[in-house]
Amino acid sequence: MESQDQNPVVLITGCSQGGIGHALARAFADSNCKVVATSRSLSTMSDLQQDPRFYLQELDVLSEQSVQHVMSNVIDKFGRVDVLVNNAGIQCVGPLAEIPLPALENTFNTNVFGSIRVVQAVVPHMASKKKERIVNIGSVSALAPGPWSGVYTASKAALHALTDTLRWR
């Protein structure tokens, strides 16, 4: 395990190049944080591979085994997680009445249950410290749904409600 210095350990899901998670990973690293950047494939974060500020991990938020494996690796390496940023998410575009149910289920499994899966894995390592933070990336679309974004909007609204619930711990 690395030394227990004061630099926060930040775990970010969905860090594929060109996205919000990737930009957040760089911003946290620029702020002297130890960044655990994750995505379903290391190749989507290839530009971060040679930078020692990043600890890259493959993570599929749909898989309990993948989440537990990454959490174990992070705790073994750093001994803690100070900040979790749940950013992994997918779009689902189309008229609600025509979207195949498996596509709707996949969107909720990724955007809602995937985030909660990671929260449940990290909270036992955070609960006693009371300083850690969990950030779930939502969307303004949850407040203003459009005709082709109903599934995505509903998943982000659900995530928003669950995030509000976490504040009461």
Automatic annotation (TrEMBL):
Superkingdom of this protein's organism: Eukaryota
Pfam families, per database record: adh_short (PF00106)
The entry's keywords: Kinase, Oxidoreductase, Transferase
Gene3D superfamilies, per the entry: NAD(P)-binding Rossmann-like Domain
GO annotations of cellular component type: endoplasmic reticulum
Gene Ontology molecular function terms on file: kinase activity; oxidoreductase activity
Signal sequence region: none
PANTHER family named among the record's database cross-references: NADPH-DEPENDENT 1-ACYLDIHYDROXYACETONE PHOSPHATE REDUCTASE (PTHR44169)
Protein family: Belongs to the short-chain dehydrogenases/reductases (SDR) family.
Name of the protein in question: Kinase superfamily protein
